Amino acid sequence: MSGPKDIHEYLAEFDDIPGTLVFTARRARQGYQMNQFAMSLMKPENRERWKADERAYLDEWAMSEEQKQAILDRDYNRCLELGGNIYFLAKVFSTDGKSFAQAVSTMSGMSFEDYQAMMIAGGRSPEGQRSIKEGR
């Protein structure tokens, strides 16, 4: 029986899941301002300011240029890499008039119709690569 893992070893295991970014404390700290921006869109007056001039509204937040560009590009995968939380980012695509499924389909590389059909059929197959470092 082995002893407890070092916390860094344990957290590194999260980075070994293909196609998945786990929202860790590190990512939460990295994306704090991005997620606060997204949550600000819960207020109608902020949504109107955002729609009027997205760049100006983003410039009010202490985000990196890379985070701002990912939001402007609606590159949700990049937003997640930069600390965004999909449930907070939902405020962005909701403001754009997109459903959760429509937005997530853009992250999968599939058309909305193909993504929707896959999900109705039960989702992605559990078969396939399960570890990046082991290539299995």
Total number of helical segments?
10
Overall average residue pLDDT? 89
Strand fraction: under 5%
The description of the largest β-sheet is: none
Q: Give the helix proportion (percent range).
A: 55-70%
Order of helices and strands: HHHHHHHHHH
Please name the fourth-level CATH homologous superfamily of the largest domain. Dioxygenase LigAB, LigA subunit
CATH C-level category of the largest domain = Mainly Alpha
Low-pLDDT stretches: none
The CATH architecture of the largest domain comes to Orthogonal Bundle
Structural class: mainly alpha
- The CATH topology label of the largest domain is Protocatechuate 4,5-dioxygenase, Chain A
Broad shape: flat
Features:
10 helices, 57% helix, 136 residues, Protocatechuate 4,5-dioxygenase, Chain A, mainly alpha, 2 domains
What does this structure look like?
The chain folds into 2 domains: 23-89, Protocatechuate 4,5-dioxygenase, Chain A (Orthogonal Bundle), CATH 1.10.700; 99-136. Helix content is 57%, strand content 0%. Helix 9 (100-108) crosses helix 10. It has helices at 7-12, 25-30, 32-40, 44-52, 54-58, 65-72, 76-81, 86-95, 100-108, 112-120. The radius of gyration is 17 Å and the shape is flat. It contains 10 helices and no strands. The protein is mainly α and 136 residues long. It starts with 6 loop residues before the first helix and ends in a 16-residue tail after the last helix.
